[in-house]
Amino acid sequence: MKLNDFQRIAHLSSLDLSQAEAEAVLPQLQAVFALVEEMQAVDTSGLAPLAHPILFLRDLAQPLRSDAVTEVDHRAENMQSAPAEQDGYFLVPRVIE
Amino acid sequence: MSWHQLPIALMAKALAAKEVSSVELTQYFLDRIEAGKRWNAYLDVSAHLSLEQASKADKIIASRKSGKLTGIPVAHKDVFVTRGWKSTAASKMLEGYQSPFDATVVSNLGIPDELNPNGAGMVCLGKTNMDEFAMGSSNENSAYGPVLNPWNSEYVAGGSSGGSAAAVAAGLAPIATGTDTGGSIRQPAAFCGLTGIKPSYGRVSRYGMIAYASSLDQAGPMGKTAEDCALLLSAMSSHDPRDSTSLADSGEDYGRYLTQSWIKDSANSAKPLEGLIVGLPKEFFAEGLALEVANAVNAAAKALQELGAELIEVSLPKTKLSIPVYYVLAPAEASSNLSRFDGVRYGHRANEYRDLSDMYKKSRTEGFGAEVKRRILVGTYVLCHGYYDAYYLQAQKIRRIIAADFQAAFEKCDVILGPVAPDVAWRLGEKSKDPVQMYLEDIYTLSTNLAGLPAMSVPCGFNTSNLPIGMQLIGNYFSEARLLQVAHQYQQNSDWHLRQASEGA
Question: How high is the ipTM of this complex?
């Protein structure tokens, strides 16, 4: 990972890191990736990825519930933690000029 | 009466016999929490809410409708959302956040009400400190300061459930909940001299657990004894239709084998573990393991042998690779899970910003701590086009090999025994500047999370500086009751789990 990669990844992560912060964190990330490189020596040809531990044990059918309304309206409670709110809506900066 | 020294199994008997009320017990622990603030074990305590619950528990006991856990206080890791107490996952991002609902674990253990008629009747003492968003191996990553180890306050308590571990070890709670994504129940339990179990993936609902890495996270109990852990786990686990990875409810009593011999109705009472085959993975006793830890775990293996178990060597050849595999998969899942923290619906929002994108970036940059940012960056990178196959898919393929290695080992043995961590707790600050050095401490715990297996930490000794050492017992899928049986039989013949932290007492 290089410094220009880092700024691209920080942007994709929605993190705003200064040049100084990037220079401080980059060696730590490079050390992590040096550790991760150990994986490349393993021959995994023909192996299916295991995304979920229980899939190793059994095929989990996607659980289905009956198509019925189960949740009641919790709007007021859910809005209580909103950083900015008006008339039951989340307020965000203007996105369309 | 020193209630904090009593296992909850005995506390329940005292409550049933009316030797103490739940209100008295709760006040006792609230007083200890107040006096024990120096450990930084709790993030939020609300005495009147706890006492209100205790009063309800006393009414249930008086009406003779109580269960095994009614009226017993419990501390919850701050990763579980709770009505009444703040839920922050030890992050500034969620400072002051109040959840409108309880996590399933919290409601399963809590006072029964209309919403939750099957609650076990336990009293919430408060929320315990943790590594921010459960990311850490030492509990030094909390936005609210590190947790100190009650055995020696210059040392870490272990992470990420370090607050829960310190609370029980210092006698600020009789038992606590934790979560384990890569060892976060077992390692702090080992560092603080406790018993803790991470059950099979899917046993305990993750609904209301603030997610770190969804295919690895699993909740479990941390207490003084295997018997206590069995009691709590039986009440914690249930099928939850709100968690699509929650397994069908087996309605198990995880304590059902505790007092039985390994072979049912065996006449040899001196050797209750006769017939048990214990596998010692050679990779767990290789270079990097501290001599004192190796000696303590080997002595524990011999103790199991004296109880009738047979010891054999097994191999888990990809143990070393569990570190890179975990540190690809967990950050990848974390980068996705933590994208919900954008300052729109809840959590921290920056004061000043230019536009929506700037608001997201500034809010997240101000709200997350250094380790969380590091893992988000790693996770985003490994999921990027061009790197996805080399990192993320390769890690998932090796995950399959790691899970298969365990199955090969379990063809030869019933349980696997090894150390929890390469060494005892380290000094505060000792490893903070080198994240990779810290990651290497997880080498013996990560692989079971990758495979989804149950595993527990059991106290088995102390080093020369009087810091606790834990042994790890790993079982095959859904063998929690058997693991607890082995641990209980060991604890009937050892006293490591009964020792009290001198600083915490």
Answer: 0.94
